[in-house]
Each structure stands twice: as C-alpha cells, then as structure tokens.
C-alpha cells in the first residue's frame, strides 16, 4: 500500500514541477512578447552612398553627405514653383513643414508675404539646381561644416532660374549657407530625422569662370587667330 502512495506522491510532485515549468515559460513568453511589442518598428541608419572602401558608424551618427543631401533636397523642393509662385510657394511650405523648424517656417512665411506683396510671385516659375563642379563630391569639406553632433551648416552653390510665362526674367548664381539640425521627432512624417533651420547667413552672389575652350577649338600652331 505504501508503494502505491509513494507512486501517487511522486506523480503529484511531477505534475507540480510541470505546472511550475509551464508557468515559468508563460512568464518568459509574456516578457519576450512585451519586448517585441515595445521595440521600435523603424530605425533610420545613415549609410554613405559609396561603400567600396567600407564604413563603420554608430547608428545615431549622421554622416555629412546625408546632411548635404537632405538640405539640397528640401531647399530645391521649396524653390520649385512649376506654375505660379503665389500658389506653389505656400503649398511647398505646407507640404514640407515636417522638414522645417518652427522658426524657419515662420521666416519663410514672412518671406512669402513680402514677395507676394511686392509682386515677385505672380505667375512666376522658379527652380534651383547645383552649379556643375560645385556639388558635394567636388569639395566635401567646404560643403558641410559640423558644428556639433546635432548641428550642421551646409553650403549650396546653386543656379536660380525664374520665368514669367515663356520669358526668363532671372538667372542668378547664388551661394546659400543653410542650418540643419537633428529633429528625430516624427519618423512617420520625417524619416530623415533632420530639419532645415533656414539660413546661417545672407545669400551671396557668386561668379563662375567660363569653361575652357575645347582642344578642337584651339588655333593650329603657326596660324594667327
């Protein structure tokens, strides 16, 4: 009789052990599930475009080339007025508001009001683009100044073209110094985690020397030009 009692006690102890193990597994599963649920769904990592030489970076580090690309992209889109500056400029400000600091947005709203009141936007078509030979790859150290881990000054050398109807009314070669800050606030609306903080200084007109004449256009030796 005692043997059967011992067997029953052994089985009951085994059942208790299984219950404890099952409870521990359930707790671990809940912990893992909570960790998976609370983990970020998206993680932005800036990778240099040229990986031939390899790259090792901290995931929160933003390389200068990414800062330059961001500043040029946002500034170019701000200044793209395909049909009418009076409509396109405020539409751009609204569409790109997630990429602008509040102070910059206020500054650009004031700029829009000033240009509108002076008649500089009505029926104006505008676009800006890099001056050939003045992009990031031509002189990287001169294009992005690292102020801190969260602040940069980007220098853009751009051609600004404006048209009124079919007539070109403006072509200017301008150097813009733009402030960029880290703003990883809303990845859903701003996946870059950066924001344009407007100008670090007034825009400056620049002069670009004309390209050299091609070799085929040179006068032959011994012949007067």
Automatic annotation (TrEMBL):
Keywords: Membrane, Transmembrane, Transmembrane helix. It comes from the Bacteria. The lineage of its organism: Bacteria, Pseudomonadati, Pseudomonadota, Betaproteobacteria, Burkholderiales. It holds the Pfam family DUF2895. Residues 205-225 are annotated as: Disordered. It comes from Paraburkholderia aspalathi. This is Integrating conjugative element protein, PFL_4703 family. Residues 215-225 have a biased composition (Low complexity). The chain crosses the membrane at residues 20-39.
């Amino acid at each position: 009789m005692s043997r059967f009692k011992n067997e029953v006690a052994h089985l009951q102890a085994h059942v208790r052990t299984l219950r404890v193990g099952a409870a521990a597994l359930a707790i671990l599963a809940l912990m893992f599930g909570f960790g998976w649920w609370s983990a970020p769904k998206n993680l932005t990592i800036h990778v240099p475009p040229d990986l031939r030489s390899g790259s090792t970076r901290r995931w929160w580090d933003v390389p200068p080339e990414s800062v330059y690309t961001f500043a040029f992209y946002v500034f170019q889109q701000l200044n793209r007025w395909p049909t009418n500056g009076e409509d396109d400029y405020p539409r751009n400000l609204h569409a790109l508001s997630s990429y602008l600091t509040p102070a910059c947005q206020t500054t650009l709203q004031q700029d829009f009001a000033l240009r509108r009141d002076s008649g500089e936007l009505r029926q104006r078509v505008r676009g800006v683009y890099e001056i050939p030979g003045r992009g990031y790859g031509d002189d990287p150290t001169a294009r992005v100044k690292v102020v801190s881990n969260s602040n940069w000054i980007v220098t853009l050398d751009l051609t600004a073209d404006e048209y009124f109807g079919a007539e070109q009314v403006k072509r200017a070669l301008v150097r813009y110094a733009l402030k960029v800050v880290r703003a990883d606030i809303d990845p859903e609306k701003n996946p870059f985690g950066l924001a344009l903080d407007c100008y670090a200084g007034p825009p400056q007109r620049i002069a670009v020397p004309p390209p050299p004449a091609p070799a085929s256009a040179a006068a032959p030796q011994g012949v007067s030009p």
